[in-house]
Write a structure and sequence with these properties.
Chain A: Keywords: Membrane, Transmembrane, Transmembrane helix. Chain B: Pfam families: ABC_tran. Chain B: Keywords: Transport. Chain B: This is ABC transporter domain-containing protein. The complex is a heterodimer. Chain A has one domain. By secondary structure, chain A is mainly α. In chain A, helix 1 packs across helix 8. Chain A is built from 14 helices and no strands. By secondary structure, chain B is of the alpha/beta class. Chain B has 2 domains: 140 residues, Rossmann fold, CATH 3.40.50; 43 residues, no CATH class. Chain B is 35% helix and 14% strand. In chain B, helix 2 packs across helix 3. Chain B is globular and about 55 Å long. Classes of the chains: A mainly alpha, B alpha/beta. Chains A and B meet through helix 1, helix 7 and helix 8 of A and helix 1 and helix 2 of B.
Chain lengths: 319, 197
């Protein structure tokens, strides 16, 4: 039964100009960040390698070995290439390496959607196309046709999630195409690219967590929209929630137990790669099992969802 | 009417619609067709697509109901709703209400913004629906129209029921009685109408 309501909602949301515009913006954004990450990673490593080669050939360091060589190479007058720098650079490469593969492109896209840009898109779509129903009074027509409010909200959340997932896949396809046609040949990485099961696991994890994160965002924004019935309130409340979820990243022991930290750990947002730190807090690095730390988050989300649903259910359906 | 359709909860009292208390289940809801307020639809959709969306939203696939309903109200379903006049939107709302051949039809000012030919068309549709066995609840300020189409009249003034019954029970057209519902309304209300608008 929900299927038809869902299909109707999907048809309504998927091809709206706003939806297509956001897809275009995020598609270009994901492509640009993939290019920046791969180009930067490749360039930096090349820089270190060249500097290393240049330094190794310097007269002053010639013939030196071990600690003596390191001391000579890290001399302030030379290009800085201490071992820690090189280690960090290689870690950057390792974080970027999967994304240069065709399947890995979808992981890169999932990382974008499971962080600030993705939540912003979910919020904008939910605000305009779900909350807007009450302001435009189209909710009246819809709720007369389908009086079961829970079914309508479930269909709306599912449709929103499907649109976000489709956006994520399209963005992944764009990056995959760029990987094959440009990045792989122009931005050489200096660590082996993962393949086989390792790559499949990485992509499955990124994609799976990304889809779950978008599902949570879709349900939350739909419930807030149904509760507030106004675009402005939905946007403000949803925006505050996203900001709240991203707070506490600097206090690692606490962050490890917060919803934002659980997401960062599940996606394995890298501390070594600065780009993600701008869009979401980095992984906590906690030694506690993730599933155990996720229990409070799941309980919190379930309680918040039930509370919101009760608030929606207990009032008039239209103003 | 919003309480009947389950959109608003009653402050007090009870409402029974098709043997159920609103809000109705999806199955019972399909037996009710309603067109309330000034109808609002998705502007970017065509009339046909809008009806399909509403039909799907009620949990059903299209088996030609949308096209048939549009045909009944004489509307071009290919046109975008943003290009519809007020009267056309009113007819689209009526088409949406009729689409599932409901047992109960709830219509709020169904002839608002319609030209005389369309008013006659609505009147014919209501007669057909009544003959089919559907119960129809219509609210309107057009008393003459109501007198023509309704079997049973409920007159409300300032939110309160002041009278109800058939045309005969209200004495309309009877010797010595008021000729029209409008005459009856002002006579009963003790008001010649000048102070009410």
């Amino acid at each position: 039964m929900v299927r038809y309501v869902y299909l109707a909602e999907l048809r309504k949301i998927a091809f709206r100009p706003l939806s297509l515009l956001l897809l275009l913006v995020l598609g270009l954004g994901v492509l640009y960040t993939a290019w920046v990450a791969q180009d930067w990673s490749s360039g930096q490593t090349l820089l270190f390698k060249n500097a290393l080669v240049a330094a190794e050939h310097r007269q002053e360091c010639a013939g030196l070995k071990g600690a003596e060589l390191r001391k000579c190479l890290t001399h302030p007058s030379y290009v800085p290439m201490a071992e820690s720098d090189l280690r960090q650079q290689l870690a950057n490469d390792r974080a970027v390496a999967p994304t240069q593969t065709v399947p890995g492109a979808f992981g890169w896209s999932a990382q974008t959607y499971a962080s600030l840009p993705g939540f912003a898109i979910a919020l904008l779509l939910g605000t305009a196309l779900v909350a807007g129903e009450w302001e435009r009074r189209t909710a009246t027509s819809l709720l007369i046709a389908q009086p079961d409010l829970r079914r309508v909200l479930l269909a709306k959340a599912m449709a929103l999630w499907t649109v976000l997932a489709a956006h994520m896949i399209v963005c992944g396809l764009v990056v995959a195409l760029a990987n094959v046609t440009y990045f792989q040949s122009h931005d050489k990485l200096y660590v082996p690219t993962p393949h086989g099961l390792a790559l499949a696991e990485w992509v499955a994890r990124q994609g799976g967590v990304g889809l779950v994160a978008m599902a949570v965002a879709s349900v939350v924004v739909t419930l807030i929209a149904a509760r507030s019935r106004t675009r402005a309130l939905t946007f403000i409340a949803g925006g505050l929630l996203v900001l709240l979820a991203n707070m506490g990243a600097s206090v690692k022991p606490v962050w490890a137990w917060l919803p934002g930290g659980i997401l960062a750990d599940a996606m394995d947002f890298q501390t070594v790669f600065p780009l993600w730190n701008h869009w979401w807090g980095a992984a906590s690095g906690s030694g506690m099992p993730l599933w155990l730390r996720a229990v409070p988050t799941v309980a919190l989300l379930a309680m918040a969802g039930l509370w919101l649903m009760r608030r929606v259910d207990s009032r008039d359906r239209v103003a | 009417m919003r309480v009947i359709t389950g959109l608003v909860r009653p402050d007090s009292g009870e409402v029974n619609v098709l043997g159920r208390t609103p809000p109705l289940s999806a199955a019972t809801g399909r037996r009710l067709g309603a067109a309330l307020d000034t109808p609002a639809f998705y502007q970017w959709m065509s009339g046909q697509k809008m009806l399909l969306t509403l039909l799907n939203s009620s949990g059903l696939p299209d088996r030609g109901e949308a096209a048939a309903a549009l045909d009944r109200v004489g509307l071009d379903g290919r046109k975008k709703i943003r290009a519809y006049s007020q009267g056309m939107r009113q007819r689209l709302a009526l088409a949406a209400a009729l689409m599932l051949t409901p047992d109960l039809l709830v219509l709020d000012e169904p002839t608002n913004g319609l030209d005389p030919a369309a008013v006659r068309g609505v009147r014919d549709i209501l007669a057909t629906e009544r003959d089919r066995g559907a119960a129809i609840l219509v609210s309107s300020h057009q008393l003459d129209e109501m007198q023509r189409v309704c079997d049973r009249l409920v007159v409300m003034r300032q939110g309160k029921v002041v009278a109800q019954g058939s045309r005969e029970q209200l004495g309309l057209g009877m010797p010595g009685g008021p000729a029209t519902l409008e005459d009856w309304f002002f006579q009963t209300a003790g008001d010649d109408g000048r102070g009410t608008w």
